[in-house]
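writing this on my phone so excuse typos. first protein, seq and then structure
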Amino acid sequence: MMRKSGTPNVVVILVDTTRADRLSCYGHVRQTTPHLDALARESMVYTQAISPGAWTPPSHASIFTGTYGSRHGVDRTHPYLDTPMTTLSEYLRGRGYRTYGISSNYWISSATCYDRGFDVFYQSWQLLQASVNPALDRQRRRDPSYTPPPAPIGERFRGAVNRVDAAFWRTCCSPFMAVDMGAGRVNRVVRRWMRQWAKRDQPFFAFIHYLEPHLPYRPPARFLRRYLSEREAKRAETVNQHALKYIGGRVTVGADDMELLGRLYDAEISYTDECIGELVDGLRTSGLLDDTVLVVTSDHGENLGEHGLMDHMFSVHEPIVRVPLVVRFPGGTPRGQDAGVVQTLDIFPTVVATLDDEGAAVTEQFQGAPLPPLGPRREFAVTELNQVQPPIETVARRYPEFDWRVYDRSLCALRTATHKYVQGSDGREELYALDTDPGETHDLSATDPARTAELRGRLASWRASFTPAASNGAAPELDAEIRRRLHDLGYIED
């Protein structure tokens, strides 16, 4: 039923670090996502959705702005979403929406400006929300004469409680817990919001972020049992989950152990799928679903041993860049599968097109376009890895026995329906025929020079089509608590 305002709600569910080929609705051999499979049957499923970025901050910024990383300027040395461009949440709030956001990734936080445009922004890793007005604080800090006042007693209390809470879950729980407090907290918060949405005659936008498929893989025990026997689960507790130790050759992960890691990853996806199903059921029961644009996607994928890599670093291969993208439009139509190349930065333009806002000034900033069938098919997709994360000099200092210079380069990939061209800042080029070599194991750049030159020219024309973001300089130091948590996730090496 359409709300009195005649304007559909918008919900974007983002499952961090999720590669498309591990979802059963994308052909995985295990039934990892029965709830998403059911949603997919009444949605548009984009089978060749490509992320414009290879890791969290630039990929999220592309979704929020409808632009590529080179244009919005978010990256390792500047992880802040402080571009003057309009974000999705700001656009919808300007259209009269009530806006809600919840994040489970420490990069996507009020500290990094991702709370822009949200009336309510919740950080799921905090038991008590500890920022009173982070946007105002950031604005004041730009004034060199401004000296921030001491934190109020209540703020210091909340910060202390959050640190104790984080330490408890990090040190006092088994690797595979009976309850996962990440997605569980997310759903508890969203259920409270949902009760408000059902009562108000006002459209809402919700950005809902789950972290579970991210390293380290620690699925709740009941999901672990779906994929591993008791003996395998015991062994899985000892399998290396430190990506840099594996990539650098300090530890060996055999095929059997990599298979165990893959099953842990699948268990994390299955748990998140159940949480998504719970929220979809809540929207349906509340009578909100048919009046909502519902998007399920990811920021990037994950390497599970392919090309000698783990985690999501140093690579623009398919396990990293091909992500799920399922869009349920109001009323469940249009629906079906689309095998054309699309990108997650097309989500924002799709929302604008769904609202039939032809006069929206925000469209001038877009490098994306409405998803089919609302818009034309793309000729190609682009993925950028402009700054290696973590920095090579830091990794080399920690693990000097490996020559990390092979990864010390930026990467840009141009992907068509059949081929992928990869260009490195060191001058190296790669070309893969994805229709016959989906694992990207045979580089054709030397044996097919004509196609290599063609795609090189397309990439050059794409780069010339816009002005890159001006350099923002080095990022201000993140606070100690955020740095510690990013270290725990493997983003920061001391």
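second protein below, same order as before
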Amino acid sequence: MKELGRIVINPYGEERPIYSPLPERTTPPENIIIFPDKKEHHIDWRLNLHHIGEIAKVIEDAEIVQEEGTFRVPLTNPKVPFAMGLIFADGHIGSYTTDSQLIIDLMDTVLTTPNSFLVDAGDTFDNGIWGGLQFEQVLPPYMQTFTVEDMMRELGERYAACVIGNHPEWLFTSAGQKPEMMFAQKMKGPVFPGMGLLHLQVGQQQYDWAIAHNYWGKSKINIHNTCVRLRENEYPQADVFTVAHEHIWGYMKEMVDGREVLYTRPGTAKLRDRYARIHGIAKRGQQCGLAVIFGAEKREFNAYTINDAVSLMKLREEIAQSY
């Protein structure tokens, strides 16, 4: 780097050199392409890469998505030492193939159940802009985003976390608009790019929840294989694993190295899926409605159907009120 001068840095007269902010470089003669009567063409690969690194840092600092994040569950009834996390995945809001009443019911469930919150595993809205999906849209993409934003507004602090799925990501691939910005404006919790680790604080207990919209290792014979791969390769210390995207539903517990882990496949609200039928994937999507109940005082976590989970939470609330 070129020295520009020196300055006195203390009362004792000690000096410190001042350097130029960028290394002084000259283009090697063999890299200068000269054409008669035209501008000289200068290329310096070191300087180019230096500037690329600076720009990349600017872009990285502006990102809203994160790899990990913490959510402290608001215990609306502190007397109930449990919290219920409802998993919402593949809502595909805006398509006529989606059961919109199912989504309304799920949101109302979160709003009316004590100590409950929502975890969004991706493809919240459909954004069907290619492959014939555009003919399924009853709301244009911009109205779909407005709808989801208003839904987040009503849920408020109960909207714990969101993973960006492949359908919203088409906003970026087609127009350079990152879908996470709309979530960032309304959400209290973290936004993950495709997958992430949610540190869940429930009363006195903390749980790690690995959430991915999609992951490799898919199997129709063992639908939880993709969750196992997510644990083995990405989040070996997590407690709960959720992988969406395939519109299948189920849950299973496994003992790994002396501790329990829970695998969940959350289903979908897109119940009429022409693409799946034509391509031999499935006759119809499996309806979402899966929840995980976490202990706030004692460390425990289990998955339930949404109806069983709500009944259990409301029973616990009735018991708490009787004391």
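DSSP finds eight helices and 14 strands in the chain. thats all i got for now
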